Amino acid sequence: MFSWFIFFEDKLLLHKEADGRVSIPYSEQAPLMLGMRQNPHHVFMDDGREVLALNLTEPVEDTEEWEMRPLRSTYYLLPFGDYLAAGKAYEIIWWDKHSQYCPVCGSTMVQHTPIMKKCPKCGNEMFPQVSTAIIVLIMKGDEVLLVHNKYWKTQFHGLVAGFLEAGETLEECVRREVKEEVGLRIKNIRYFKSQPWPYPSGLMVGFTAEYESGEIKLQEEELNHADWFTIDNLPLLPQKLSIARQLIDWWIRKQKSLS
Ligand SMILES: [Zn+2]
After folding, report:
1. What SS3 state is found at 255?
2. Which pTM value belongs to this model?
3. Which of 65, 68, 104, 195 is paired with 164 by a 20 to 30 Å CA distance?
4. What is the distance in A from the centroid of ligand 1 to the CA of 203?
């Protein structure tokens, strides 16, 4: 028996339970007699589970028993372990789709292991590629720096974040992103934790830091607001699934324990 993580684009197939909850289908064969154009991917989780991932060419229609929901929303619907497995399954499917042909010589790639493909002509090997990004919570006395990105659809405020560049350490990336986005210098950069971010294939690495010097100067191509906030005047915060929110919640707990 396997857990089946079945996607159409970014939507995951869920089984509706009698009590109103949803679950990941668990069966020997693919549920719903889905026509399979390809074999399912075997995905191995940190907890020892082996699950199957399948990419559909058409969505499954909503019924009394089944529905498809965006991956992001399943954080709030599924046990955390299943949400993580869904994210990994999605990253594998996305990788498979984007590694059909060898980027060196154009031949059709051949899958060798669940996470490795090899070009039969030139020997080029491809593994799922992860885009690494940093995110940093900056503290100044009893205040925290929160920013609003001009491309965010809602009015919440989050943290300074950005992609790691080639040849850069994570700490250098943190310093550079803060300088570029808000014009500040920071010190005491400390690792917080990391989080897979399967939208579509990222790793977010969280840090905390302290303000050192400078005035806020916005990078206007990216941000339209940034300011210092105390625990008493916080704006709308990011959703619970993000590491941004986990960093902010950590800071809120810290402030409360100090007061
Ligand atoms: Zn090749």
Report:
1. helix
2. 0.89
3. 104
4. 27
Q: Would 2-97 and 131-258 be classified into the same CATH topology?
A: yes
* Distance in Å, CA 120 to ligand 1 centroid: 7
Tokens of 48: 């020892």
Span from the CA of 49 to the centroid of ligand 1 (angstroms): 33
In order along its 259 residues, the chain shows pLDDT tens digits of 999 999 999 999 999 998 989 999 999 888 876 665 668 999 999 889 999 999 998 899 999 999 999 999 999 999 999 999 999 999 999 999 999 999 999 999 999 999 999 999 999 999 999 999 999 999 999 999 999 999 888 889 999 999 999 999 999 999 999 999 999 999 999 999 999 999 999 999 999 999 999 999 999 999 999 999 999 999 999 998 899 999 999 999 999 998 7
CATH of 2-97, picked from 1.10.10, 3.90.79, 3.40.1130, 2.20.200, is 3.90.79
Cα 239 to Cα 245: distance, rounded to the nearest angstrom: 6
Q: How far is the CA of 122 from the centre of ligand 1 (A)?
A: 4
* CA 111 – ligand 1 centroid, Å: 13
Q: How far is the CA of 90 from the centre of ligand 1 (A)?
A: 25
How far apart are the C-alpha atoms of 37 and 170, rounded to whole Å?
41
The tokens describing 42, both together, are: 């075997």
How close is the Cα of 165 to the center of ligand 1, in Å?
Answer: 26
Domains of the chain, by residue range, sit at 2-97, 131-258
CA distance 235 to 229: 8
Find out if CATH 3.60.15.10 is the number for domain 131-258: no
The number of beta carbons lying within 10 Å of the beta carbon of residue 78 is 20
